[in-house]
Amino acid sequence: QLKAAHWWDSRDDGSQSAARAMHWFERAAAAGSVAAQQALVERLWIQAPSQARTWLTVLAKRGDALACARLGQLLLEEACHREAAPLLELAARAGHAQAAFHMGQLYATSGGMRQSGLPHSYKRAALWWDRAAQAGHVHAAFALYRLYTNRPFSP
User: Fold this and answer.
1) What angle do CA 41, 43, 45 make, to 5 degrees?
2) Residue 87 CB burial class (10 angstroms; 0-12, 13-18, ≥19)
């Protein structure tokens, strides 16, 4: 099924091939193929976010770090901080810089924390931001700079 999906996906003859590829990706994903589930998320992310979210949830339950990060970010955008926090932490611990940045935000902001259930802690925020900054996340580096220059604080 996955081979058929890739074959149809590689054809360059318009929407009929794309539709057939999606059909085979969906069949392979439903049969449990992680690669097909990831491919569906990529294809549905812009066109059909609710369908992408379904497959993100399946992948996140399996511990897929990228899926956890994406689903966590979607949940943050929907102000579902309590559901987002464990997903983001799993992704951040696996090395996902954006997830680590969001974890820092949740620890640093009082509103995010009350909703996430995490304790307010600039020290923990700094640890997550440092992890994200070390991975090249510019916003995390700036958050650290602001934390260190605007607060009497020592990690």
Assistant:
1) 60
2) buried
What whole-number distance in Å separates Cα of residue 80 and Cα of residue 94? 22
| Residue 135 φ/ψ, nearest 5 degrees | -90, 5
Residue 126 dihedral angles phi and psi, to the nearest 5°: -65, -40
Residues 92 and 98 sit within 8 Å (Cβ to Cβ): no
pLDDT single digits (tens) 99-134: 999 999 999 886 555 667 788 888 999 999 999 999
- What separation, in Å, do the N-terminal and C-terminal C-alpha atoms of the chain show? 52
Run of H or E residues at 35: helix 34-47
Note if the pTM is more than 0.70: yes
C-alpha 67/C-alpha 31 separation (Å) is: 18
**Rounded (10°) angle between helices 34-47 and 15-30:** 130
Judge whether 101 and 69 are in contact, CB under 8 Å. no
C-alpha–C-alpha distance, residues 116 and 86, integer Å: 9
Do residues 99 and 88 touch, judged by C-beta distance below 8 A? yes
What is the distance between the alpha carbons of residues 29 and 39, in angstroms, rounded to a whole number? 9
